[in-house]
Amino acid sequence: MLTVRYLGGPTALIELGGRRLLTDPTFDAPGDYPIGQRKLVKTAGPAIGPDAVGAVDAVLLSHDQHPDNLDHAGRTYAAEAPLVLSTRSAAERLRGPVRALPNWESYDLDGVRITGVPAQHGPDGSEPLVGEVTGFVLQGEGLPTVYVSGDNASLDVVRTIADRVGPVDVAVLFAGAARTSLVGDHDLTLSSRAAAEAALLLGARHVVPLHFEHWAHFTQGPSTLTEAFERAGVAERLRLLKPGEQAELYRPGDRHTRLAG
């Protein structure tokens, strides 16, 4: 079985193969969140708090250096989790249960294979400014394949993953076309149009967007996602969840892509 529950922002609870996985935990209240000389503004809190989420088997942390992907309450939650998979730099900074998962290396979590994959948080050459980011691919014998993009803005990166992994059943795409003064007019995450194109590149049967609302630096949202997927002719693939809503995407016996790799 595969279910995805959208909590808000970049945070979702993925249940796959009997394992519970939480993406980028953000549980703080709305407000201003400083980041260097700048600040990010959170406009809404999560639909479900950490106590209601309960224990998970692992946290999939795309990166730790930005408060819209790991806030104060999220840090507390991650520190108490049995396992956090993230970037090498996050493992060095956070320590505790955080384990680095380099690109194309895998960690087996009781039958769910979690592979680190590239992510580019902005235009070419932006990593020295924005820091290291990662995505994830989830696979397992008899299980659907899930791609979690993290804060990726590059379709070239998506093409690389599609070429190496093959078709995916579910793409969890961080969208919203985030923009800040750090990289000018460039997107820091996928635009709605790019998310629809990513769905085609990946051959994804279902697309669950995350990280497209609840922060002021997003320039696109639900309406632009719906429009972009309609224009691309893949509206039926879009699973645009409301905060707190859960989608059951696969049940035992459903057909899905073959295990790649």
Summary of the model, kept short:
Pfam families: Lactamase_B_2. By secondary structure, this protein is of the alpha/beta class. The chain has seven helices and 15 strands.
Model description:
By secondary structure, the chain is α/β, with parallel strands linked by helices. It has one domain (2-250): Metallo-beta-lactamase, Chain A (4-Layer Sandwich). The protein has seven helices and 15 strands. It has helices at residues 50-53, 72-80, 88-94, 127-130, 155-165, 192-202, 222-231, and strands at 2-8, 11-16, 19-23, 31-35, 38-42, 58-60, 84-86, 98-100, 106-109, 112-118, 134-139, 146-148, 170-174, 206-210, 246-250. The strands form three sheets. A seven-stranded mixed sheet has the order 8-7-6-3-2-1-15, covered by helices on one side. A six-stranded mixed sheet has the order 9-10-11-12-13-14, with helices on one face. Helix 5 packs parallel to helix 6 (192-202) and helix 6 (192-202) crosses helix 7 (222-231). The protein is globular. It starts with a strand and ends in an 11-residue tail after the last strand. The mean pLDDT is 93. Keywords: Hydrolase. Residues 19-212 form the Metallo-beta-lactamase domain. This is MBL fold metallo-hydrolase. Pfam families: Lactamase_B_2.
